[in-house]
């Protein structure tokens, strides 16, 4: 829920009670304010704590009793009792609803804790520094449910330099996690053994093809993984190699506030779709100056929408900004996406940032 929505939810029960008092004072005795007082605890029940809901129910009952006393000369005894009983029964119902909602929230929170623990096991946090590079990673899960997503990242120091991958497996749940584990495992092995990024991508493609062969149903034909692989050579050269397989293009932020999108020269299909079409992979090489930051992300960032349906564009929102390090960049990005959407993201976000410090 957006901050504005949270404020409205917090004050709406109060407004209903006050509105009921004003309505009763300003209308003839034949009109009743009981619907206002009944609605107040019902509105508070799913959105507030048990204490707040109880206070709202007590305030609603007090308001109804005051109104009946104020109009006692004009109201029939049976009408008065009926109105008070109605508000009382609805207040009890609201307390029951609040209890059920809180129990459901506790169960969902427990499931989310398990999901997040599983996510951390699949995606261990990379070290802050690796081969002279500053590194930061974040995983932000969608709060719409507790399903584990298929977003992934991995960083590895190899004889060929620091190699990394950021990807997104199609789908959710255990099947997506299984595919993510396969991709990460194949990447770690291939990154050590293969001399080029192209060969690493080939190993990942074959691993996913084997995985597809053992599956049944739609996933046998529809399963795929978008991914971007990158390599920063170990010889100290200010060079970056990027191989993109259908994934959102990473961004490079330079010390002077510049920003460039590292779009592939030749677009390619995601990993696991080699049976549909196949052509040789080719990594793009670009200059990676000291002090620059690389930002890798999944489509949970670029597909985040605001209230009017406009997508989040990190290249526009981050251009001209300066960040002390990769962690600051990722934290700022997460906060900015939350402001854009007005709340939690609708999809998982896997984020990875790498900085070549000045003097390297």
Automatic annotation (TrEMBL):
One Pfam family here: SpoIIE
Key words, A-Z: Hydrolase
Domain of life: Bacteria
GO MF term list: phosphatase activity
Residue span, PPM-type phosphatase domain: 130-356
SMART domains documented for this protein: PP2C_SIG (SM00331)
InterPro entries to which the protein is assigned, alphabetical: Bact_Sigma-Reg, PPM-type-like_dom_sf, PPM-type_phosphatase-like_dom
Record Gene3D superfamilies: PPM-type phosphatase domain
PANTHER family for the chain: STAGE II SPORULATION PROTEIN E, STAGE II SPORULATION PROTEIN E-RELATED
Protein's name according to its UniProt entry: PPM-type phosphatase domain-containing protein
